[in-house]
Amino acid sequence: MIQETIYIKIKPSQIINLETFVLSLLAILMIILMNDMLKEYLPLTFIPKEMKAHLYRLPAYLSAFVLINLVYKVLQIYCIQYEVDSEELRCYSGIFKRKHEIIELYRVKDFLIEKPLIYRLLGLGNLTIYTSDKTTPVLRLQAIKEPEEKYKILRGLVELNRREKHVFEVD
Question: What's the whole-model pTM score?
């Protein structure tokens, strides 16, 4: 059995979920305020007895929904993994339905590195890979550590792979 050396094995940072974290925190605060307002200003005379219990539980239901959504988003990012060996770039993703994207390195055409301000502060960046692959023409590696170093390794492996397979880029 041929053993492949994995040159890059990375996972994206949870900073991708920053917006979800902030919105969840704001939603929980609004739900707490709504709970207090429900208890003070709810006109109980017009509401049937069966509905009163559910109305008082409404903030708990909404909080549970927000927390379930937050956990799902965190798991979604946690389950993403990128691997690069001498011949392939593999992307694994999905919580319940795993998806394995495999791109041959000789198909890689170009790279783009983006580093938004918040990512720069944390030493992260996005590495976008443009390929001639039919199923995945663009692959974004979001919020990865040291994207320049990953780019250099990947570029060297792409050039080596093209030379070994005698593949030349023609536009």
Answer: 0.84
